[in-house]
# Entry
Amino acid sequence: MNFNRGVGQYVRNRRGATAVLFALILVPLLLVVGLAVDLGMYQKQKMKVQHALDMASLAAARHLSKDLSADTADVQAIANAFFAAEIELENYVSMNDVSVERSGMRLNVGVDGTMPTSFMQLAGIDTMSLATTSEVVYGVPSMVEIALVLDTSTSMDQTDTGESLSRVESLKAAAKDMVTILFDPASSLNVEMAIVPFSNRVNIGTDQSGEAWLSVPADESEDRTDCYITPEWYEANCVRDSSTCSDDDVIGSCGTWNCTGVDTSTADRDCTTATTTRSWHGCVEPRSTANHLKDGLYVSEKIPGYLSTHERQCASPVLPLTDDVNDLNLTLTTMKVRSETYIPSGLIWGLRMLSKDAPFATDKSVSDFMDEGGVKSIILMSDGANTLAPDATGEIGDLDISSADPNTRAICQTIKDAGVEIYVVAYNIADVSTTTLLQDCASSESRFFSAGSADELKGVFESIAKQVVRDISIVG
# Structure
């Protein structure tokens, strides 16, 4: 065999194979490059559409601010005219007329259109949608109802490095500043505010006893004898071990007695017999899974009262909607930290504070309130993750908290679907997943705030107060 001839044939075969391989990868390579080109063009046109639609929305909102009785058809004509004047699209882009929907003081403006593709047609994608929306609030609201939903779990009792006040005291100061801004005597704005302190449960106040929507069990008493090994015996026979422990995600130091190899059966013990009584101090549990996150159906399932040995096992009492500044400041001043965190407990009661129906009925539904130029809002402040969750019956515990975050997302969506705005304040939260959860809860990006210090928290509450009483603005 001629070796050189064989090598030459092999080289020619390799060249042929390379050509075939290159041909095979050429099409997907062109698709990838083409995708980047088409997406770049799409993003450019999409930004133009969004900008033009925002300008059209503001123009329409300004018209409504001057004439709240303006016909929707006239408002839509104005929006279309401004959109056409602002838009600068290539001639190959096709856009439809701008649509306008009014809901209270909100103006929802949308437009649809398409842009043809170039390289993506190789993959069967001929056009890309340029559908865009813009939401605008306009005018100064005539009425405002706000529910402050405030995290008062144990973690709020800590004082952060560089701060002179604990988190809860900083919160009280910031919230009082908000009250001062919103209830300015010089303002013509009609404002009412409710306060919902929460931890794992909510305290609705013992004055609600007997309400049709509430089910309070009878007091429970138990005679119990408890025997404890005396501290003196432990000190004489065992060794003290130190360890870390946590309460509401706050790490601390704990100690346990190590009695390895020591017979404790003959240890000295102190025994006491006492009657323990569990009664209702105003605290309520969630309902069962079927109705846990609903505001309604109280005939079929009432809200269960929670029995405890003392009132310190529940958050401080709520304050229903009021315009009494003294009552608001007193409620804020007397708030105490309690137990661990379950955010949905606070949010569902925030919604109930603003609802037309029981438990705390207001004069108007959310939709009627908006139609008359009013705004209903929840302002949620939390400093950490959920650390507890209810079981299927509604009993709060820490054996399985996997439902806590999904429940938080669900109640946030329920509130937004009801037409209530949600402002969210994340206070000193480093955990990314918790921050994301709270961001998603807010009605829009412009309704989410993060504060890392007492001064920042004060500034955030001031910003929210001014944002609640706003002029024309684009939402999100």
Summary: The mean pLDDT is 86.
